[in-house]
Specification:
Layout (H helix, E strand, L loop, with lengths): L3 H11 L3 E4 L5 H10 L4 E5 L31 H13 L6 E5 L2 E3 L7 H11 L16 E3 H11 L9 E4 L7 H6 L1
Parallel strand pairs: 1-2, 2-3, 3-6, 4-5
Helix pairs in contact: 1-2, 2-3
Length: 180
Amino acid sequence: HRDEAQLAGALRDLDPDTLVDLACYQPAEVAAVIRNFSGRRYVFMSTGVYPNLFGKTAREGDFVPLEGDVPAGDLDYMDAKRWCETVLAGSAELPWMVIRPPAIFGARDPSLRIAAYIERILDGGPLLVPRETYEWPAGCAWVNDVGRATALACDLDRDTNHRAYNVSFGEVTFRQILEA
């Protein structure tokens, strides 16, 4: 979305009912979508890494729009996603929806988040896990669950505009995942 003229042209040519945005993470990019998208639903893929609730699972209502003017320039990932949601929250005309997955893992996860732990369990080596986060919610989601949630978000018969949905394992702790 860095090139607003290109975005506007693509949206005009394609005229989609639904726009699923997996790439945007700067508030200026969301503002460009707001100015140019005239479809029935904008699904914004955000992140489940905020707010910092010190080991408690974040709920949809825990997000509070930020106050003040949107900072200029590129922001770091977490701050940028929060500002993107703040910009969306201020847009009553755009039919938006937010999906908030935390770390996503699955068969083709290039980060190998879970694979490294499984490998260590299989080889019998010690697992090094920070004590202070061992019993915290794991903050992860299975790729298929995120895909299903995104597909549901695209269902225009559902009244889900102007809402955000967290997609994660909820109260499953990192310890429980490792033990399983």
